[in-house]
Design a protein that fits this description.
With 79 residues, the chain is an all-alpha fold. The chain has helices at residues 3-23, 29-49, 55-73.
């Protein structure tokens, strides 16, 4: 392949990557919080089942995020 062809295909690959990045949907804050809470609870559960350290941290993290989520849903958070 010539240098021009290589440069062209490199450009095509970059453009396709940009299109895919734009197409991905950004989650809302509520969706992100709910996903983080779920992952934190699962991690805490997994650690406690395996009797490893750190379950308390993940439980506290999930509790804190739930407090934030509840405040947002009650519209107590102001910008």
């Amino acid at each position: 392949m010539s240098e021009v062809e290589t440069e062209f295909w490199s450009f095509v690959v970059r453009e396709r990557a940009l299109e895919q990045a734009r197409a991905e949907e950004v989650p809302t804050l509520i969706d992100w919080l709910e996903r983080e809470i779920s992952e934190a609870r699962e991690t805490a559960f997994s650690l406690s089942i395996r009797q490893e350290n750190g379950a308390e941290y993940w439980t506290g993290y999930a509790d804190a995020l739930e407090d934030v989520l509840k405040a947002i849903k009650r519209r107590e958070v102001r910008a």
